[in-house]
Amino acid sequence: MNFSHPLRFSPFYQSRVWGGRRLETVLHRTLPDATTPFGEAWEVSDRPEAMSTTAEGVTLNDLWQNHRVEVFGGLKSDSPCFPLLMKILDACDDLSIQVHPPAHRAAALGGDPKTEMWFIAHADPCAKIYAGLKQGVTRAQFDAALQNGTLAEVVHVIHPRTGDCLFIPSGRIHAIGAGLLIYEIQQNSDTTYRVFDWNRVGLDGKPRQLHIAESLASIDFSDFEPAMQPAVTNGTLVSCEFFDVRLCSTTEQLGHEGENLTLAVTQGQLDLAGETFRAGDFAIIPSSMLETARRITSSSDDAQWLEIRIP
Question: Per CATH, the architecture of 233-309 is what?
Answer without folding.
Answer: Sandwich (2.60)
